[in-house]
Design brief:
By secondary structure, this protein is α/β, with parallel strands linked by helices. Helices cover 29% and strands 17% of the residues. It contains nine helices and nine strands. The chain has helices spanning 3-6, 28-34, 86-89, 108-118, 135-149, 164-171, 189-196, 210-218, 231-239; strands at 12-16, 40-47, 53-55, 122-126, 155-159, 177-181, 200-203, 222-225, 244-247. Strands 1-2-4-5-6-7-8-9 form an eight-stranded parallel barrel, surrounded by four helices. Helix 4 (108-118) runs parallel beside helix 5 (135-149) and helix 5 packs across helix 6. The structure holds SN-glycerol-3-phosphate (G3P). The site of SN-glycerol-3-phosphate has 9 residues, from strand 2.
Length: 256
Amino acid sequence: MDFLELFNKPNLIAAHRGDRSGKPENTLSALVSSVGRCDFVEIDVQLTKDLVPVIIHDETLARTSNVSTIKAFEDRAPWRVSKFALQELEQLDFGSWFDSRYAPLLTLEKALTFVKEAQLFLNIEIKDISHVFADGVVVEKIITLIQRTQIEHLVLLSSFYHNYLPLCKTYAPTIPTAALQAGRHPNDLIPYLRTLKVDAYHPEDKITTREIVERVRDAGFFVNVYTVNDPVRQQELFSWGVNGVFTDCLRERIRS
Ligand code: G3P
């Protein structure tokens, strides 16, 4: 089964940044903990200063690492990920902000290796780093790793920065893509999604209406909504034809 075939199943649950209620987000332990409790996992990728794809959500390291406590890095505030080399990020602890346990940096390479072993479906959100790195460099670095790991069929790529999406299709036509959207829907939404060559639309919950879902689904796109932790709201969205919801709250799931 590939990612697009997964959308034949109803009521998909996506683990937002892994099991981020139980483990530090975007770490290997968050991926491990989400196995068997979701239909696919979502993680965030950006590049280090030396162009290595790493799994971190924020533009800076302060919230999800111990960077602010490391003497060697005290003059590097606000600790932008893009200003740190891989070897520097490997010195940080990405677990102690969450609980007492240490968690190492998760690189995209390590995440993909785990996903291949566990045969997990993975949504990789490409953070908007267009102000730092050329779009082609960002997309090429990420897609090269996916292709090298030979898991194109397990992956869906998404971004709020929509210029990456047609580029992804140029580099890897078989990997599905999705446009993330917050705030308001783009004008002429359906023609716009066609221009981007995406397979899916990922709106935030608060702008998602039944009318939008029906219009987008009728036009042949899949719809996954973020971030929906309320089970009643999840059911309402599913009843409108939404394929999946991103959630921070995972439950045991038995799927055939
Ligand atoms: O990709 C779905 C969701 O993760 C988007 O929001 O802020 O968590 O990247 P954010």
